[in-house]
Specification:
The complex is a heterodimer of chains A (about 575) and B (about 180). By secondary structure, chain A is mainly α. Chain A is about 65% helix and about 0% strand. In chain A, β1 and β2 form a beta hairpin. In chain A, α9 runs antiparallel to α11. In chain B, about 25% of the residues lie in helices and about 35% in strands. Classes of the chains: A mainly alpha (about 575), B alpha+beta (about 180). Chains A and B meet through α2, α6, α7, α8 and α9 of A and α1, β8, β9, β10 and β11 of B.
């Protein structure tokens, strides 16, 4: 019988002790981590197949799909990747973050079942109605474009289900504290998940605010909401939900660098403040999508872009320093002290979880972050809005950043939670590189074609007669990158599914090691905890990053200055 | 420890390299924040979002009146495109108003403008949302039904420019075309 206390240490708690980490695992939480992760990966595969079809259509020389199916598959791709895969996997992460690190038992199985059931029902509903051709409206479904009511109802169910799952997370935090499952402050991974959960609530409330009147309009019960209002509120859902991903991704960075290298945050106060900045200021990023809109004025646009928004950018720049700095400190303490970058070459690059994390940090920061802030600059948006530059940006944040980090996490989640060692470990070591390089090529293809004016969400560029061979070449790069990234994705899914069936069972033994840097002779754990000038490599890397940022940023102002005067 | 609760006091101010980086990052955010108001007053390309409520039927009537009063010719599309085989070419008076109407799937009418003159270019839609994307310049603005979006625009280069639609608007979206000629 389970006890009433939610402390895993209580006798009779439904729990096991992990044979690898020695941490307690709540068996209820474990079940829902499994369910949500598996559902997420199924939707990742569906979205991935759609991605391949899209890449092979925009590659103008191949031009695979007919027009109606291109727009249908594009809607399907956006919903499955940006909403379903990410949300299911994030519920899995939240379920983990509120139990094992706090030594706590999940608040409620019933609530977790309700959440999962609602999300899955909604997801199936949305995918069905898209595939039968009743919702060719893109993920944004901008009014007056109208889909079948089931499309909106499905999204509402997914949102309500996710909110229910988030409630279970908050309730677990509460009972863990109440039942003294842990002493002191929650660890940074849980703190990051908490920030993600708070943003998720605000995001999903925006979703309800916009989707419910749209659903009732689709049913013919209420008049049509204003399309300008719809854009404003929808992006409170659309952009903020991506910040849930950023928060979860950064939490995963802290988790994996800790698990693989033994990194710890170099300054808990600064890292936590950065998470708080996300919560407080990211809402304003919704304005990024309205920078060339009618109806909202220049003052509104500039204010919502910069004065508060850049505090959220600041938060990402803080994590971009503290995550590699934590790794550098850990490596130097292990004895890898040669030169500025000696620790970098000694990192476990063949460990797929580490490779995925490192690639995620670099791709998210250098490509996704720099392009995002620049494109989201009020005036620069004139030369970027709705061109392929926009998906060129978010494919290196939400795919090269978040999805890659989540893939890295799976290389530990599958052995530790499903308790099976990966099959084909040599293939797994290559997978993050294949996916990372592929998605980077996709982004380059999109960004350069977009700079030449090629629009996003367009089936064909030849009907206009304005795009030359260079634009066609970059669309070819997009296509090749898409094939590579899809191959990486498919390998990931096959490895995960294959492992669930054929992986060697782990019972009361540690998981097979992916490779961690061994401590050298003379290593001194904790010796650099108070040396604030030990992160020489990281400060050089971040200053190089800042230089790249500045060059890209001002190059775009120059490009803007070359177009016609307009106000 | 990233995965275990913190029991020792953990609140410390930033120091050393971390402090240097924080300083650089805050300074950079400050520079980026100032660039936008600076450009608003000193730069020439801004999106002020000037817009007025308009009923699509009224906008259609205004556009037709503008076409009837200022028509100077006919554009015959050399690119095979069943959605737009020809458009009236309309030349607004220098400094005056020009009306451009987005509808599934055409930008109507074609405009002829003079280099160096300033026009008030009205954009609106009769049906769905559309995207005004002027190529090969690559200038992009959102077009929303019910809103008369006014751009005060000064062509500074001559030639033939194509308006592409870059907001998804149904099956003919990719072939939705318009023209601006600058002399």
């Amino acid at each position: 019988m389970s006890t009433s206390s939610h402390n895993l240490a209580e006798p009779g708690a439904r729990a096991r002790v992990c044979g690898t980490t020695g941490l307690g695992v709540c068996l209820d939480a474990q079940r829902f981590i499994k369910l949500n992760a598996v559902a997420g990966i199924v939707f990742l595969l569906l979205g991935g197949i759609a991605a391949l079809l899209l890449a092979l259509t925009r590659w103008q020389a191949v031009h695979l799909l007919p027009a109606d199916w291109f727009y249908r598959v594009l809607t399907f791709h956006g919903i499955n990747m940006l909403i379903l895969w990410i949300l299911f996997f994030e519920v899995a992460i939240l379920t983990f973050a509120c139990t094992t690190p706090l030594n706590a038992r999940l608040f409620s199985r019933k609530v977790a079942w309700t959440a999962f059931g609602l999300m899955l029902t909604g997801a199936v509903m949305v995918d069905y109605i898209i595939l039968v051709g009743q919702a060719d409206v893109m993920m944004t479904s901008y009014l007056p474009l109208l889909a079948h009511p089931l499309f909106y109802l499905g999204i509402i169910l997914v949102a309500v289900g996710t909110l229910t799952g988030v409630f279970n997370f908050f309730a677990t935090l509460y009972v863990a504290k109440r039942d003294r499952a842990y002493e002191g402050s929650m660890p940074i991974v849980t703190f990051g998940a908490l920030a993600a959960a708070i943003i998720a609530v605000v995001t999903l409330l925006h979703g309800a605010l916009v989707m419910i009147p749209t659903f009732t309009y689709a049913m013919g019960w209420t008049p049509q909401p204003d399309p300008g209002w719809y854009r404003l509120i929808w992006w409170g859902l659309g952009h903020q939900s991506q910040q849930v991903n950023v928060c979860a991704m950064v939490a995963v960075w802290y988790l994996l660098t800790h698990v693989v290298v033994g990194a710890r945050p170099i300054n808990e106060a600064v890292c936590r403040t950065a998470f708080a900045l996300y919560v407080l200021f990211i809402n304003l990023a919704s304005a990024h999508h309205l920078l060339v809109d009618p109806g909202v004025g220049a003052t509104w646009k500039i204010w919502n872009t910069s004065y508060a928004m850049y505090l959220a950018v600041l938060a990402s720049m803080v994590h971009g320093f503290t995550v590699p700095a934590g790794v550098e400190i850990a490596m130097r303490e292990k004895g890898y002290t040669s030169g500025i970058f000696g620790w970098v070459t000694a990192l476990p690059w063949r460990n797929p979880a580490f490779a995925a994390t490192a690639l995620s940090v670099v791709i998210f920061g250098f490509l996704g972050g720099i392009t995002g802030v620049t494109l989201g600059t009020q005036q620069i948006n004139i030369i970027a809005h709705n061109t392929l530059r926009i998906p060129g940006h978010f494919h290196v944040t939400v795919v090269g950043g978040t999805t890659l980090a989540f893939m890295g996490l799976a290389y530990y989640v599958v052995p530790l939670i499903f308790q099976r060692d990966f099959i084909l470990r040599g293939v797994a070591r290559v997978q993050p590189w294949l996916f990372g390089i592929g998605i980077t090529l996709v982004s380059f293809g999109m960004s350069f074609a977009g700079s030449m004016g090629v629009s996003r969400r367009s089936w064909d560029i030849d009907a206009q007669g304005v795009y030359g061979p260079a634009a066609h070449l970059w669309l070819g790069v997009l296509g090749l990158g898409g094939i590579l990234a899809f191959t990486g994705l498919l390998i990931f899914v096959l490895l995960c599914v294959g492992t669930l069936f054929f992986g060697a069972k782990i019972e009361n033994r540690p998981m097979a090691d992916w490779g961690t840097p061994p401590a050298l002779a003379g290593s001194q754990p904790g010796s650099l905890a108070h040396d604030h000038y030990a992160t020489k490599g990281t400060i050089v890397l971040t200053l190089v990053f800042l230089a790249c940022f500045a060059v890209y940023y001002f190059a775009n102002w120059k490009a803007l200055a070359d177009v016609w005067p307009v106000r | 420890m990233s995965l275990r609760p913190l029991t020792a006091p953990w609140f410390h101010g930033p120091a050393g390299h971390e402090k240097i980086w924080l300083g650089c990052a805050i300074l950079w955010c400050f520079v980026m924040s100032l660039m936008m108001p600076y450009w608003h007053f000193r730069g020439k390309q801004n999106s002020t979002g000037e817009a007025y409520r308009v009923v699509p039927g009224d906008y259609y009537a205004r556009t037709e009146k503008f076409v009837a009063a200022n028509r100077v010719g006919t554009f015959k599309n050399p690119v095979p495109n069943p959605l737009t085989t020809e458009l009236p070419i309309v030349e607004p008076p220098a400094g005056g108003d020009a009306y451009l109407m987005g509808r599934m799937w055409q930008w109507y009418p074609a405009l002829r403008l003079r280099k160096g003159e300033t026009y008030r270019l009205h954009l609106s839609s009769l049906d769905l949302q559309h995207g005004f994307s002027l190529q090969p310049l690559n200038m992009n603005f959102q077009v929303v039904p019910g809103y008369d979006h006014v751009l005060t625009i000064t062509p500074t280069s001559t030639g033939e420019f194509t308006i592409v639609c870059n907001e998804f608007c149904g099956a003919g979206h990719h072939a939705m075309t318009g023209k601006i000629f600058v002399e």
